[in-house]
Specification:
It is a single chain. By secondary structure, the protein is an alpha/beta fold. Helix 12 (about 260-270) packs antiparallel against helix 13 (about 275-285) and helix 13 packs antiparallel against helix 14 (about 290-305). It has 2 domains: about 15-255, Alpha/Beta hydrolase fold, catalytic domain (Rossmann fold, 3-Layer(aba) Sandwich), CATH 3.40.50.1820; about 260-325, no CATH class. It contains 14 helices and 8 strands.
Length: about 325
C-alpha cells in the first residue's frame, strides 16, 4: 500500500484537481474527459478495482484527507481505483463520458481485475448503476440512487427540475436496466424519503437487493460514510461475502450514530409516541452523554406519569433495538 494521500482544504478546486492529476501521472493515469469530467486511475492490484463517482465538492468532502472516499478505501486496502469526477452535478450524462467507458470496454480494461466494485451515492449512485454495464459481473453499491430524471418516467421528482433537460433516454440512460449484467447490486435507501423510495421501486431484478435504512436523513450517502462502515462493506464485496445479511449487520452501527438517533427521536416526537421516546432516550443515555436525550426522557416520563403509565424495568444496556421497531432492521 502506498503512503496515504492528504490534500489541503485550502486548495482551490482547480488546484485540487491539479494535485489529483499529479497523483494519477505518478501511479496510473489522469485524463480529462470532455470539458466537465475527469478520470483518475491508480494501478495498484489486479485483484480488486473500486470504481467511484463524485463531484469535485463531494470528492473533497469525502474524507478528512481531502480525497474521494472511494480512493481512500482503495488506498487503505491496496486496491486499484478508478475515480470519475464531475466539476458540477451533471449526472455524468455527457457523450465524452459515454465514449470513455466505450473505450474501456473496447480495451477489455475491466477484464483485467478479479473483482470490480462500483460505488456512488445520489447522483453518483445513478452513475455507478448506469455505467456498471461496462463491467459485466461487477458488484454495485448505490446509496439513494436516482433511476433516471427522464420526465416521462420521473416527473414526480421535482428536486432536480433544471437537470431534466439532460438526455436520460440514450446510452447508459435508465440505470435499473444497466444493472442486468451485474453480479449483484445493493440499493440502500431511506423508505421514509418518499422520492428516494420511488426511485428505489424502479430498480427490479433478481440480482438487485434493496436495503432500507430508516431515518437515514436527507443526505444518506454522508450518513453511510460518517458511520465508517463503507470499508467493511467494500472488503466483504472484495472477499465475495457481501450479502443483505452482512449489510444489515454493518448498518447496526447506526444505533451508536447520534445523527441517526436524533432522526428517530424527531420522528417519535412528531408522532407524540412518548413511551417509545422514553425507551429510546434510556438506551442512548446508557451509552452516551447526550443532554438532548436526557431532556426528552424527563419530558416523556412526566407525560407518561400524567397518563398513569410506567416504563418497564431497565434491561441490560444496548438492547433498545429488541424492544421497539424503530431501531430494528
Amino acid at each position: 500500500m502506498s503512503e496515504l494521500v492528504t490534500l489541503s482544504e485550502q486548495l482551490t478546486d482547480e488546484e485540487w484537481l491539479s494535485e489529483i492529476e499529479e497523483i494519477g501521472k505518478d501511479r496510473g493515469y489522469f485524463e480529462r474527459v470532455g470539458d466537465r469530467h475527469a478520470a483518475l486511475f491508480l494501478d495498484e492490484s489486479l485483484d480488486v478495482l473500486l470504481v467511484s463517482f463524485d463531484t469535485i465538492a463531494s470528492a473533497r468532502a469525502g474524507s478528512a484527507s481531502g480525497i474521494p472516499h472511494g480512493m481512500l478505501q482503495a488506498e487503505i486496502n491496496g486496491w486499484s481505483h478508478l475515480s470519475l469526477i464531475a466539476q458540477t452535478p451533471t449526472w455524468f450524462r455527457d457523450p465524452a463520458v459515454f465514449a470513455y467507458f466505450d473505450r474501456l470496454v473496447d480495451d477489455a480494461f475491466f477484464e483485467d481485475f478479479e473483482t470490480v466494485i462500483f460505488y456512488g451515492a445520489g447522483m453518483s449512485g445513478y452513475a455507478a448503476s448506469a455505467f456498471s454495464v461496462a463491467a459485466p459481473g461487477a458488484i454495485v453499491l448505490a446509496v439513494s440512487p436516482q433511476a433516471t430524471l427522464d420526465p416521462s418516467i420521473a416527473s414526480w421528482d421535482d428536486r432536480f427540475a433544471t437537470e431534466r433537460r439532460r438526455d436520460f433516454t440514450s446510452r447508459y440512460g435508465f440505470a435499473p436496466d444497466m444493472l442486468e449484467a451485474a453480479q449483484a447490486a445493493y440499493i440502500i435507501y431511506d423508505p421514509f424519503d418518499e422520492l428516494d423510495a420511488m426511485h428505489a421501486a424502479l430498480f427490479r431484478g433478481q440480482q438487485i437487493h434493496k436495503i432500507r435504512l430508516r431515518h437515514g436523513g436527507g443526505n444518506l450517502g454522508r450518513t453511510v460514510q460518517e458511520m465508517s462502515i463503507l470499508g467493511q462493506i467494500f472488503r466483504a464485496a472484495a472477499a465475495g461475502s457481501l450479502s443483505e445479511r452482512t449489510l444489515f449487520r454493518a448498518l447496526r452501527k447506526r444505533h451508536d450514530y447520534l445523527p441517526y438517533l436524533r432522526n428517530v427521536l424527531n420522528r417519535l416526537h412528531v408522532e407524540e409516541r412518548h413511551y417509545l421516546i422514553a425507551l429510546l432516550c434510556r438506551s442512548v443515555l446508557d451509552r452516551k452523554n447526550a443532554p438532548r436525550f436526557r431532556h426528552h426522557l424527563e419530558l416523556s416520563e412526566h407525560r407518561l406519569s400524567e397518563e398513569g403509565r410506567k416504563l418497564p424495568p431497565r434491561h441490560r444496556k444496548g438492547r433498545a433495538a429488541d424492544r421497539f421497531p424503530e431501531l430494528r432492521e
